Amino acid sequence: MRVLVVEDEEAIASALEKGLIKEGYAVDIAGDGLEAIEKASINNYDVVCLDLNLPRIDGLEVCRRLREDRFGGGIIMLTARSTIKERIEGLDMGADDYLVKPFAFSELKARIRAVTRREGGLREPVLNTRGLELDPNTNRVKRDGREIHLTPKEFSLLYYLARNEGRAVPQEELLEHIWDEHANPFTQTVKVHMNNLRRKLNEGFEEQLIETIRGKGYVL
Ligand code: CA
User: Fold this and answer.
1) Which of 18, 27, 88, 176 is spaced 20 to 30 Å from 106 by Cα?
2) Domain of 159, in residue numbers
3) 200: helix, strand or coil
């Protein structure tokens, strides 16, 4: 796996380089946008980690040009900016993911793994509905571009409801599809997980996405 780190701050660039090499990646560094485009046109990168604020041309433009040149690898934006508008811009320009600075190196590693796994071809469909983006390959959820961290179980619940959008899904059905055979149907398992899911999903948003319909179940 070969990674291009595009970062003008040398301290950050060399820290990322060292960390990634330790993880077994081959790493190249570009200190500005033009150098990044040049290197990407010569070498075959699996992933580009792309700082947004760069001299000469900025990360968004680099991203746009890479995709225009049919760069097929993953692009992860590294950004100090964090408004929803700017994140969406990055995704619209063809970025696969982004990290807001400062981030933990372990998180970058996880994103790189996720992005490269996605490039592998065995992708399940990403669901987009009601401002939600659900990626079953990575268990990642975004609402209006904002990432929401769910447990695998919570993700499965949400994904199941999203696939059945508009239909009230009974608790028994959820138990059947999402829990294994050891789940006890008489416990509050579904309810407890559903409450947690709702809390995470709705935090900071006006609209509640999951409704309970008495006697029928849950509906997205
Ligand atoms: Ca920078």
Assistant:
1) 88
2) 127-219
3) helix
